[in-house]
Write a structure and sequence with these properties.
One of its GO terms (molecular function) is DNA binding. The chain has 176 residues and is mostly helical. 77% of the residues lie in helices and 0% in strands. It is elongated, with a radius of gyration of 24 Å.
Length: 176
């Protein structure tokens, strides 16, 4: 690719480079838009991806792998932005901010959560803890437990539904 670009006429090379960069930009936008929860951050994430690409371009071993490499960088930055946004939402109110910073969680909440988790079977409990307490991704859990990702996703989904059902059952007033 580099030799081909070097051998071209300068005016054609600039046009060719611009077309390739435009296409790369469109593909990165598409990847980031697909990954991001808050679509307002697309421009910022793509811009950060360009900065990373320019900083690390000399680490790219095969120039024909530029597009997948750039899309991977953009996707990873989008995941990081989602993670940062989740943390920001946890501190959205002033009264909640101090409570969220407190190293000691509410004992009643911990007792209730522990009780709900204790009613689940050990496998489901482990999956939910891996996912929501430790923050592992589904593919990481699947690799650790040597199970298909689809199985992990469905078991987590069913486990959450069981927790919600248990919570609703506990919140109902007793029958007279």
């Amino acid at each position: 690719m580099t030799n081909f670009l070097r051998d071209m006429e300068p005016s054609n090379r600039m046009e060719m480079d611009k077309d390739k960069l435009d296409e790369l930009y469109r593909q990165m936008i598409k990847v980031v838009r697909h990954k991001l929860i808050c679509k307002n951050d697309v421009g910022d994430v793509v811009q950060e991806a360009w900065v990373r690409i320019l900083e690390k371009i000399d680490t790219l071993r095969e120039s024909d792998k530029l597009v997948p490499w750039a899309k991977t960088i953009a996707a990873n930055l989008a995941s990081n932005a989602n993670r940062a946004r989740r943390i920001t939402y946890a501190y959205d109110g002033d009264e909640n901010y101090e409570k969220a910073l407190s190293p000691i969680p509410d004992p009643e909440l911990l007792t209730e959560l522990s009780d709900l988790l204790g009613r689940l079977d050990p496998v489901t409990r482990t999956l939910l803890l891996y996912k929501f307490y430790y923050g592992f991704r589904d593919d990481e859990i699947a690799a650790a437990l040597d199970m298909p990702v689809g199985t992990i996703k469905s078991r987590i989904h069913r486990g959450r539904e069981r927790l919600k059902a248990q919570e609703k059952k506990d919140d109902r007033p007793p029958d007279p």
